[in-house]
């Protein structure tokens, strides 16, 4: 993913700014006032989302909305006067991220996701007739409220007239203009589709190679990621060749190994969304085989279920059907947790803010009873959810 490098600079500047802010905070207020704002989770096992080994008897220090320190109790001293929460017997992880949803511009959905341990969602295509500017203002206001999951929006899905999507372009020039309009309105990433048909339809018109190239280069010039919708291998190959940043949906026909190898070589992520494929009646065993092949080639996966992206039932909260199929494809519990945290943050373009438990990151935290590395079902036994440093759900005894 070529955009990753562009994040390096802002990240280091962000760290320096944060360090200054912490220094200033230390000078400006008395130690007691600082400590009253300090929350500590202690005695649990911590999985930081990077794929590193779990830390037992961990100490996670949170100040305001950010993580201050993380490590074992030998490494990290509990600040005096801090509010210490004992989470013995539990596992502390980053809040989960669902990197493919729709209907995220809905308060009750955002509230249900947070309560269910999903502290960020990536809306992969707006389903609304409201003006984009108004929706982006709504997103920004919603993102100030910790009870609502953080909303990352791809704006409207770009395609050609009568194609699969909601934003039509007729030429490369118009493609560039429409991308710039979306970016100027404030969308977080760009979504395009290459879809021949769905639900009994086929032969849909599709973007040309030149239009696809223009969309991707225009977004990348601005440092914005492009997510590409496909359901068939031949269109995956076109979008991988063109250089999108993640592929939305795993194909339901068998994908050649060479295509997976090219994705891995280009560092393009895959967000499988088994739930919507199941709901449309796709052969899930083929989808699972594809994911297995991709992961065996070293591919990086992000969690997403395409909530609301078709008929049938979708889970709000942690999408356990996705996790079950990832497990069937041979992903380890640790790989699945990384897919649900760090990798989902990467495809959302916010890995410098959330997705891992590291100093300076926003404190989005999920605490579950027991050990999810031992049994992934433990992910459903939620003890605590914290979003932007605020405790949203507390069942800690
Ligand atoms: Zn979708």
Give a brief rundown of this model:
It contains 14 helices and 18 strands.
What would your notes on this structure say?
The protein is an alpha/beta fold. The longest helix has 21 residues. The strands form 4 sheets. It has a 6-stranded parallel sheet. Strands 2-6-16-17-18 form a 5-stranded mixed sheet, with no helix packed on it. Strand 12, helix 7 and strand 13 form a beta-alpha-beta unit. Helix content is 35%, strand content 20%. Helix 6 runs parallel beside helix 7. The radius of gyration is 21 Å and the shape is globular. It has 14 helices and 18 strands. The site of zinc ion has 6 residues, from loops.
Characteristic terms for this protein:
single chain; 397 residues; alpha/beta; 6-stranded parallel sheet; 5-stranded mixed sheet; 18 strands; globular; binds zinc ion
Helix content: 25-40%
Shape: globular
Bound molecules: zinc ion
**Cross-sheet strand order for the largest sheet:** 11-10-12-13-14-15
What's the helix count? 14
- The residue-averaged pLDDT reads 92
Distance between the termini: 43 Å
Which ranges are low-confidence, i.e. pLDDT below 50, for 5 or more consecutive residues?
Answer: 1-20, 22-33
What characterizes the major β-sheet? 6 strands, parallel
Derived from helix and strand composition plus strand pairing, the structural class reads: alpha/beta
Got a strand count? 18
Strand content: 15-25%
């Amino acid at each position: 993913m070529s955009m990753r490098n562009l994040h390096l600079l802002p990240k280091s500047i962000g760290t320096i700014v944060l360090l200054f802010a912490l220094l200033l905070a230390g000078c400006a207020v008395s130690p007691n006032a600082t400590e009253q704002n300090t929350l500590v989770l202690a005695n649990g096992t911590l999985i930081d989302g990077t794929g590193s080994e779990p830390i037992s008897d961990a100490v996670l220090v949170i100040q305001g909305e950010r993580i201050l320190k993380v490590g074992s109790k030998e490494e990290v001293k509990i600040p005096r006067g801090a509010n210490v929460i004992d989470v013995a017997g539990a596992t502390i992880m980053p809040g989960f991220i669902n990197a493919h949803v729709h209907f995220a511009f809905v308060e009750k959905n955002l509230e249900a996701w947070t309560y269910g341990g999903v502290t960020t969602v990536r809306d992969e295509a707006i389903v609304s007739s409201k003006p984009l500017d108004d929706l982006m203002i709504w997103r920004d206001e919603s993102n100030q409220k910790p009870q609502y999951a953080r909303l990352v929006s791809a704006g409207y899905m770009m395609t050609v007239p009568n194609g699969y999507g909601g934003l039509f372009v007729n030429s490369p020039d118009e493609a560039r203009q429409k991308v710039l309009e979306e970016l100027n309105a404030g969308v977080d990433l760009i979504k395009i589709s290459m879809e021949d048909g769905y639900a009994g339809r086929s032969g849909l018109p599709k973007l040309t190679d030149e239009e696809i190239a223009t969309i991707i280069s225009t977004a990348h010039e601005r440092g914005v990621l492009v997510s590409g919708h496909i359901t068939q291998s031949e269109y995956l190959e076109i979008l991988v060749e063109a250089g999108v940043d993640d592929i939305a949906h795993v194909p339901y026909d068998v994908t050649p190994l060479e295509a997976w190898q090219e994705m891995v070589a280009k560092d393009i992520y895959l967000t499988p969304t088994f739930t919507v494929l199941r709901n449309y009646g796709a052969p899930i065993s083929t989808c699972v085989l594809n994911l297995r092949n991709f992961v065996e080639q070293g591919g990086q996966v992000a969690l997403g279920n395409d909530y609301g992206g078709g008929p049938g039932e979708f889970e709000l909260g942690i999408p356990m059907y996705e996790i079950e199929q990832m497990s069937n494809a041979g992903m380890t519990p640790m790989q699945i947790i990384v897919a649900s945290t760090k990798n989902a943050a990467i495809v959302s373009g916010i890995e410098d803010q959330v997705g891992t438990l590291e100093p300076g990151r926003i404190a989005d935290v999920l605490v579950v009873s027991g050990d999810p590395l031992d049994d992934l079902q433990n992910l459903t036994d939620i003890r605590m959810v914290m979003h932007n440093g605020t405790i949203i759900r507390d069942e800690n005894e």
